[in-house]
Design goal:
Number of helices: 14
Distance between the termini: 11 Å
Number of strands: 16
Mean pLDDT: 95
CATH superfamily of the largest domain: Type I PLP-dependent aspartate aminotransferase-like (Major domain)
Structural class: alpha/beta
CATH architecture of the largest domain: 3-Layer(aba) Sandwich
Low-confidence stretches: none
Largest sheet: 7 strands, mixed
Number of domains: 2
């Protein structure tokens, strides 16, 4: 993909220089591995609505929206207003704020499995908190998760996400089973259930390729988890955007605990765990069995912005994003066929994962389509469209049919470039 790569480098000299400068101060050039790609990542100056602009002055349609967190796009005016109003009145203190309560109440109203909520600063911290609750309640240590699931940067979960990076000793506290294979989960629980505190599953795998769990799989895993005396935890950090009550409402399976993050912070760092008071009650100061704190947990800026984000993600807007996702998926498939590219995709509502191969893998955290996927990512950037480096797309409520058709045209031009390089 030499021509595509050369065009990208020609288009982004200031981003290249910014990356070299960053590399001298921040190892690798950034603090977020998912943002890194060759020959150098972009440096963005600002975002507005469905677009971002880099420091070279180039504009891009943003079709990844900070890996799903910006469900209302960039600088969404009601969120900006709420955050700015609060910033002017203070950003953090060692006391409560009303926005925390209102956001918690909004989430409890939406999610049937929630009696109460506690907030953290990231999805990773939500995973840590959920595991702390499960370990305290069960008196056990280990966790069972799907192979190539992603639940943040806690080592117990990264072992499952990137098993190739860890030795056997690091895997002592994590058991793995195959996503959508209830027999495999049941077998692990039958053999090791007495050691397992929690079974953690994404109802829709995000990093694993936008792969949906079947309701039957989730129901069987729930039953096996409870039979083993463990807690079932759903990771809806990404999937919460798919329904007002989360994906658990769509599949009809309630977990014991749910991890949230991303969109519930309105573009600010956030995480949360919600569940029944039977489990959340370990933090009740009247009878404490656990301790959970954090300097910026439930800070008023995040809570005020998150309340707007959640309230404005209505069922009607979710349905509209779903329809736009279908429209874009159809266009991408049609363009790939016209250009003779091997292609398939997974879609769940407003989430899409593209693969430049004939059949989608069951689930994977790493691309298996090599140069084609990387080439399309850079070619799309060359044509002013931003998707995730691994091929993930996440739409936002500020998009419409005209913008989706514009994105489809840009994707078609990028595919033409990839096909030309192949030939």
């Amino acid at each position: 993909m030499n021509s595509i790569r050369a065009t990208y480098k020609k288009n982004t000299p200031k981003s290249a220089a910014a990356h070299r400068r960053a590399h001298a101060a921040v190892i690798g050039g950034n603090s977020r591995g998912a943002a890194n790609h060759g020959p150098h990542p972009l440096t963005i100056e600002y975002g507005e609505g469905a677009r971002v602009v880099d420091i070279d002055g180039r504009e891009y349609l943003d079709l990844i929206n900070n890996y799903t967190s910006l469900v209302h796009g960039h600088a969404y005016p009601p969120i900006v207003e709420a955050a700015q109003r609060q910033v002017g009145r203070g950003t953090a203190w060692v006391a409560n704020n009303v926005w925390q309560t209102e956001l918690a109440e909004a989430l409890i109203e939406r999610v049937d499995s929630f009696d109460s909520v506690r907030f953290t600063n990231s999805g990773t911290e939500a995973g840590m908190l959920a595991l702390q609750i499960a370990r305290t309640v069960t008196g056990r240590t280990n966790v069972l998760m799907a192979r190539f699931g992603y639940h943040g940067s806690l080592m117990e979960f990264e072992v499952g996400s990137f098993p190739m990076l860890f030795d056997d000793h690091a895997q002592d506290r994590t058991y793995l089973a195959t996503f959508n294979d209830a027999d495999d989960f049941e077998a692990v629980l039958a053999e090791h259930g007495a050691e397992i505190a929690a079974v953690v599953i994404e109802p829709v795998m995000g990093g694993g390729g936008v792969v949906s769990a079947t309701p039957e799989f989730l129901a069987r895993v729930r039953d096996a988890t409870h039979a083993a005396g463990a807690l079932l935890v759903f990771d809806e950090v990404i999937a919460f955007r798919l329904a007002t009550g989360g994906t658990q409402a769509l599949v009809g399976v309630e977990p014991d605990l749910t991890m949230l993050g991303k969109l519930i912070g309105g573009g600010f760092p956030v995480g949360a765990v919600g569940g029944k008071n039977e489990y959340m009650g370990i933090f009740d100061p009247a009878n404490p069995r656990g301790f959970h704190s954090g300097t910026y947990n439930a800070n008023p800026v995040t809570m005020a912005a998150g309340l707007v984000s959640v309230r404005e993600l209505t069922a009607e807007r979710i349905d509209r994003m779903d329809a736009l996702g279908e429209r874009l998926a159809d266009s991408l498939t049609r363009s790939a066929g016209q250009h003779g590219l091997p292609f398939c995709l997974n879609r769940r509502g407003s989430l899409i994962q593209v693969f430049f191969q004939e059949q989608a893998p069951p689930n994977t955290i790493l691309s298996r389509d090599g140069d084609l996927s990387a080439g399309f990512h850079l070619a799309a950037l060359n044509h002013g469209m931003m998707i995730a480096g691994r091929g993930m797309i996440a739409l936002s409520t500020v998009m419409d049919e005209e913008l989706i058709d514009d994105a489809a045209q840009r994707a078609d031009a990028a595919m033409e470039d990839v096909a030309r390089e192949m030939g």
